[in-house]
Known about the structure:
By secondary structure, the chain is an alpha/beta fold. The chain is about 35% helix and about 20% strand. It has 2 domains: about 10-25 and about 105-165; about 30-90, no CATH class. The protein is built from 6 helices and 7 strands, in the order αβαβαβαβαβαββ. A hairpin with a 2-residue loop joins strand 6 (about 150-155) and strand 7 (about 160-165). Helix 3 (about 45-55) packs parallel to helix 4 (about 75-85) and helix 5 packs parallel to helix 6.
Amino acid sequence: MTEEIVTRVAQSGLITLDLENMFPLGESVLLDIKDQLWQGLALREKDFREFIKEHDWNQYNEKFVAVTCSVDAIIPHWAFMLIASKLTGKAAKIVFGDTNNLHETIITEVITALNPNDYRDQRIIIKGCSDRDFSANVYMQLVNKLQPVAKNIMFGEPCSTVPVFKKA
């Protein structure tokens, strides 16, 4: 006689939201223009336009691209606009900043696109552990999106949660 193993967590009706699983698949790359600076200090328009013309922009097809300059230099906004004009229609996403900015922007868009009615009167656990490091801002946005409709919100793992919100 075999007894079926049933977990209370599975029967609890809890919805676990794992931001890492919500993150879209795709490669993230950093495009750092520091090597395009003249003597590491300044951007020369003629040289930069030559870089724009000769660079292989197809390598960014369907990738998430963060564009930055990692050295302290004054870069005119038009330089980043030129890069954006080459990446538009190729890259899946383009942001100014490092890959942390990129990932924050992407997950923020995912949270914004959530339909709060899918979580109406639900008990939600926002998973805490993941390989990707999300900022406190991301978790705050998620609570802000879900609290008006959720029955309660917890943080952590189903076996060990921290209460965040409970509807009165």
